[in-house]
Write a structure and sequence with these properties.
The chain is mostly helical and 99 residues long. The chain is 48% helix and 0% strand. The mean pLDDT is 80.
């Protein structure tokens, strides 16, 4: 099954889609913990990095989620200040769970 979000380049998910997106990914990971998942956008940096940073925060990464994604995915990930703020704001916005 695929979950597709229409996010403009350098943008963020619409508010209604934000929690639904991460909840769907968490549910999929819980149902199939050994399954690999693809998160991507055209360049794999801004929108992809933002979603990965939110997932990192959701899954209990203790350090700054943007720094974590840049260290583990790509140093250019999470391209705009708005994306950085969104990803960093995710930590604590939801109850932490280990994915």
């Amino acid at each position: 099954a695929a979950l597709t979000l229409d996010i403009v380049d350098f943008g963020l998910p619409e508010p209604a889609a934000r929690r639904a997106t991460l909840e769907a990914l968490k549910a999929a990971m819980a149902a199939e913990p050994d399954r690999l998942f693809y998160v991507g956008c055209k360049a794999g940096l801004g929108r992809t990095g933002t979603v990965l940073a939110c997932l990192a925060a959701e899954c209990g990464v203790e350090e700054d989620p943007v720094a974590w994604v840049r260290a583990h995915h790509d140093p250019r990930a999470v391209e705009t200040p708005a994306q950085e703020e969104f990803a960093r704001g995710w930590k604590g916005a939801v109850s932490p769970s280990r994915c």
